[in-house]
Structures are given as C-alpha cells and as structure tokens.
Amino acid sequence: MLYQKFSPAGQIMSIRVCRDVITRRSLGYAYINFQQPADAECALDTMNYEVIKGRPIRIMWSQRDPGLRKSGVGNIFIKNMDESIDNKALYDTFSAFGNILSCKVVCDENGSKGYGFVHFETQEAANRAIETMNGMLLNDRKVFVGHFKSRKEREAEFGAKAMEFTNVYIKNFGEDIDREKLKSIFSEFGKTLSVCVMTDERGRSRGFGFVNFENHGDARRAVTEMNGKELNGRVLYVGRAQKRLERQGELKRKFEQIKQERIQRYQGVNLYVKNLDDSIDDEKLRKEFAPYGTITSAKVMTDGGHSRGFGFVCFSSPEEATKAVTEMNGRIVSTKPLYVALAQRKEERKAILTNQYMQRLASIRAIPSPTIPSTYQQSSGYYMTSVPQHQVRSFYNTVPNLRPVPRWTAQAPRTQGKALFTEQFSNNSCWALVNFADFHHLYMMAEHPSITQSRGPSLPPSRSVLC
Question: What's the pTM?
C-alpha cells in the first residue's frame, strides 16, 4: 500500500514498516527511502497530511540523530486552538516562519483536544513564531504560543506552584452547612476571597465545597488545623484544591504504586494449580498444601458453584512456595495428577506465549523448502522401468527410435475421452502436454509407432506439466 501511494513521487529504494518485536503489529510509522532527494522532497510537499484509511499521515525528513528530537530546540507549544484546526491548517499557518520538521495537533476519539506542537529546524524560527503568533486570533480564538517544556520541567514547575496554593477543598460535611456557615468556620484563618458549597438540582448541599484564601499561609494553616476535625458528628477532609486532570493523574499514580506493591508482595509466593478433581474445594486445597508452609490464601475457581478445575495457593515466603511446587507437581490427588507452577500475570503469560510462537515461526521459516526436480519422477504405483526420463536434446530431421516389438497389440485411436498426448514439431523444438493421471496411456502410445497423435478435450492446467 505504501509503495503504491508513494511510487508516483519517484523511484523507491526501500520501505520499512516498524513493528512490535513480540506481536509484530505495526507501530504506526515507517521509513521510505527514495533514490533521488528531489523525489523525497516532492513527496513531502505534495502528500503530507493526505488521508490513508481514514487517518491523515504526517511526513517528515528522517532524523538519524535522536538528540535533535529530544533536545526540544525549535519546538513550540500551541494551546486554546479551535477544534476545526487540523494538522494541515496548523502547518500552513506556521510554515511562514521557517522550515518545519514536524507538526501535530493532539487528538482523541472525539477529535482535536485544542493543543498541538510545531518543531522548527532552528530556534530562531521558533522564536519568530512565538513573538508573532502568541495572543493572536485563530478562528476567533486567542491562542497561546510558547516554548515546549518537557514533562519533567512541567511537573517541577507545577509542583512549585502547587506548594503556593490558596484554594482549599472541603468535603464530608452535613446538609446543614451552607455557604454562610462554611465561611464563618474558615474565616478565622484569614481573609477569604470566595466560598462555595456545591448543591444538586434541588438546591440541597452535596457535602463538599471550596474556600479561596487571599494568601497561601492562611490556606495552609486551614488545611493543617481543619483536616480530620469533627464537625457535627462528621470527620472533615480539608486539602489543597486540585483540577480534575491533576486529581485523576494522582489517583492513577497511587493505583499503579499499590498495584506494583501487590505484585512484588506476591512475586514468587503465589502458585497456580490445575487439573483439580471436582471434589476439591477451598478447604481441601488448603489441606493438601498445608504441610509445606504457612498459607495466606487458597482458592478454587468456580463457575455457578461448580469447580473449573484450577485454583491458586499463596504462601508466606518464596521458599515455601518453591518447596510446594517441587513436592506437589505431578502428585495424584483424588485420581488426578496435579499441575503446580508459580502463578504468572496475564501480561507475562501472554508475552511468553507470543515469544514462543514467534520462535517456532522463525524456525519453520529457517527450514529450506524442498527442491522440485526439473524432470518427472515416476510414481511407485506404475511399473515404468523402460520409460526414459526427459533429456534436453536437439531435434532436427530425426525421430527417436521406438521399440521394434510392442508389448501390446495395436489399438485404434479413441475418438472420445481424455486427451492423452499432444506433440508438435516446430522450429526444431518439441513440447508435450502430459496428464499425470493418464501417464500409462502416454507410455502405451510411445510403444506403438502407428499411434502418432490423439486429440481430445484440453487438459486442466492444475494437472499439466510443460516438458
């Protein structure tokens, strides 16, 4: 597909689609090597941002030095863009300031997210774009254009600003607390700029709100003294107010941290047991493995109250789990031999199986394919010892000698049935079309000088060979 798309621009030397090492799925980008630089420049100028399978493609010069991409030199950030601005519109807008290496509008399944990046070849071009475009109107929206900052720089800057917060979030108070009561409670810590209690469609309090102080010191003191304090029988939570994206990111980091701690805690101590008899339940499973150490949990997986034939046993230490694997794997319990091994996460098991599949596939590809002989090899089902194999020879005015005494009596040519043999002499050459299923008929004809040609319906190509 890529060759058909880009070959009109010029002669292509090579195309490489980058794929995942394990799954072999496309990573969504590729490299195309043209024979002439002018052809590559033509493709860049005429095909950039064209749509392939419903998605616009981005074309840029291949940068072999990753330092240029990662340094951030010449890279700018644009936000507050109108949703109608796509990659091509952004490229056309900023190309007046210099040569653009890459240009991208960040999108999700719903379209543009309102921000993007433009990477110029030089820092001077980026500076000109910032000076000219920052604060300008694009499709009736005032855009912000500034220098690109890496994630570490943004997190450090955001962390410094977060330490100087003035907005406080309060939750878990009763419906009897309205705006005036909340303001009177927190006004003792300092001057407040705004107080808000969130309500539902009926005007009733939802049990949380915000208080914005004039300075950071008052807000910090309110958090320190009021967080965890009881108010009308409820324990308050008071903390720094966060934006939704920041709060979601923080919750995600906490979840990943807890997940990793759980994985490390159970690494090497959780066993997978399969081929369980239907009579084995949680208690019997625990009893079978109890002699090998302290069991923290034992569970037989069920479906509708019936055993699915496998379960898990978790020990308190890796040594106990290893001992249980050694002793219990293959042991017969209730007429069935158990399979016991260390439990693996789904991602690890999937990666291992995919790797094994790729190794088998590579070994199959490494086996050389059998060489097909150029001459016909006779089948063992026919007795054809006297039929010579085809040899390359020149035919002039002579015909090969035939056996003087035939083995069979001469038969008249058949007018109906399958075509047995066709021969033609032309320009000192010979070709023959042979039907493998009727090869014994061909042999019979070669034994009789009186039979020189028999015509019939054409032979199917799948059963024919050109000699």
Answer: 0.43
